[in-house]
Amino acid sequence: MALVLIVEDNPINRDVLGRRLERRGFSIRFAEDGPSGIAAAKALMPDVILMDIGLGEMDGCEATRRILADPEMAKLPIIALTASAFESDRANALAAGCIDFETKPVDLPRLLGKMQVVLGPKTPPAAMNFG
After folding, report:
1. Are strands 27-31 and 48-52 parallel, antiparallel or unpaired?
2. Each residue of 27-55: pLDDT tens digit?
3. DSSP the chain
4. Distance CA 21, CA 16 (A)
5. How far is 14 from 12, CA to CA, in rounded Å?
6. CA dihedral sign of residues 46, 15, 109, 56
7. Are 52 and 81 in contact (CB under 8 A)?
8. What domains does the chain contain, in order, with CATH numbers?
9. What is the DSSP track for 78-97?
């Protein structure tokens, strides 16, 4: 089962996205801010991280840079999530090391497609039904 770490400070967003992905066959873990996201990434070594960019004191771009700077975690795929759809936000997330970018509210079929590219055969069969 593919393990997804969702780093998101909004409890409603965490709950909604987590439930939607669990129904698609993913194992979900959560972190509420940048520092706990870094610690959870190191402890869990998830298959993919969904990183909110607007986290507060340490934003998602900085958390991403710190995760990827650790040689043990340097290859973890991170997809940025943000309510901001400005091209500059996308560019900043990609420059920080995120492999892709998704706006909120999340378009689940589009996000699942991006996750499938990253996960390949680890993608749960239920996640491949984008309908």
Report:
1. unpaired
2. 999 999 999 999 999 999 999 999 999 99
3. --EEEEE-S-HHHHHHHHHHHHHTT-EEEEESSHHHHHHHHHHH--SEEEEES--SSS-HHHHHHHHHHSTTTTT--EEEEES---HHHHHHHHHHT-SEEEESS--HHHHHHHHHHHHGGGS-GGGG---
4. 9
5. 5
6. negative
7. yes
8. 3-106 (3.40.50.2300)
9. EEEEES---HHHHHHHHHHT
Q: How far is CA 13 from the centre of its chain?
A: 12
Instruction: Label residue 126 by pLDDT band (50, 70, 90).
Output: confident
pLDDT digits (tens, 9 = 90+) for 97-108: 999 999 999 999
pLDDT value of residue 128: 78
> Taking the CB of residue 130, how many other CB atoms lie within 10 A of it?
12
Amino acid at 5: L
Position 124, amino acid: P
Tokens linked to 131: 């309908």
Q: State residue 131's pLDDT score.
A: 56
Both tokens of 43, joined, read 């402890």
Which token pair is 87? Answer: 């091209």
Q: What percent of the chain has pLDDT over 90?
A: 83
